[in-house]
Amino acid sequence: MPFHDTLGLRLFASCFLFALAMPHSVSSAQIVSGVPSTFGGAPPLPPGAILVPPAQALPRVVPSGPVTQNAFAQDSGSGALADQSGGTFIEPPFELEQLVATGGVPASLGQLRLLQRQQQRVAAAAEACTVSVQIGPAQGCGVIITSTGYVLTAAHVAMRPGKSAMLTLNDGRTVTAKTLGMNRSVDAGLMKIDPGQNARDSAGREIGWPHASLGTSENLKSGMWCIATGHPGGYEADRGMVTRVGRILAVYPDRLVTDCALIGGDSGGPLFDLSGKLIAVHSRIGNDVADNLHVPVDHYNEHWDKMQGGNAWGFLPGFRPVLGIRGNSEGGIANVVRVGPGSPADQGGIREGDQVVTFGDVDITDFESLKSAVSDTMPGERVKIWLRRDGQPVKVIVEIGRGD
């Protein structure tokens, strides 16, 4: 049995046993990590979290045609492609409508089996658009969202605009991509697969890339089921994509919190609802194993034009890149006036009186250009810096620190 099938069965069976043990019905607002609040109560949420009460069951809506995606995924260049790539939307059976809309636990063994089967179908559809991302030594994930190859990821995976990336598809094939813009304040990043790398149809047109069906993060509620996919630790042919099934614990304006356990290398991968619509992108792990943070997909929609244009801005609270020096631009160069004791610059070998010539791939012309170059890095990134010290060139490697 595939890894994700076994995982789903264990999780669903656990929830089902809880449901059978309950003498009365339990609403989705009482469910956190699959455990009804009767068993000791739900854990406290951080300040500012939104715990939304369950809504009433929604009427059944059967789409008459293709699922309409968010406007930001409507790529003007898609007409040049033979779009045979489909999406990830899997219409849930009628019996699962309330679980899809509001969360909760299966009420019967038959519903449990339907829920597991729906999870399996969504996971199978997600394999083709969930990619492993390699940028230099750094590894993460991404999700293809258009037939022309736009890829959503986390900003800290994309690093900065204009970087070359290597993407590994579910069949092991590798393709190249280029990073575009990013909103670092919520950890949202964008890439695009370089053209000319996919197969062509009989008419000579490039076949479109498999892509996710886009949902919205506007009406998400705590207790709703969700499916996380990714390639933690990088692509492994024998293992393939890893699937985790869980539920939304809290909804914030800038992030979702779920109990879908993320591990190293998952960042940038997709989070789907039970109908296979993309609702968020994995960001990072919080202070607890059940504190898994995701970027709501609507943030990509809100800033699509800026990100598509290669703009980058902001930083996550607590993840501001720090070098640890002060200086000036006297003489038209970047002069180091003070180095903070124990700072990344101090540990990397930068000294007072040094002049910064290059920072990574960026030529430094004054202290402002150095500040701009530092702001384009991520905490933990190792950067090669060329200095001029007493008239002689000096190379140092500095690991960027982080501040509030």
UniProtKB/TrEMBL annotation:
Positions of the PDZ domain: 321-391
UniProt keyword annotation of Iron present: no
Keyword Hydrolase listed: yes
InterPro entries for the chain: PDZ, PDZ_sf, Peptidase_S1_PA, Peptidase_S1C
Keywords: Hydrolase, Protease, Signal
Superkingdom as given in the UniProt entry: Bacteria
Signal peptide bounds: 1-28
Any GO BP annotation: proteolysis
GO MF annotations in UniProt: serine-type endopeptidase activity
Pfam families membership: PDZ_2, Trypsin_2
Family classification: Belongs to the peptidase S1C family.
The protein's name in its UniProt record: Serine protease DO-like protein
Lineage of the species this protein comes from: Bacteria, Pseudomonadati, Planctomycetota, Planctomycetia, Pirellulales
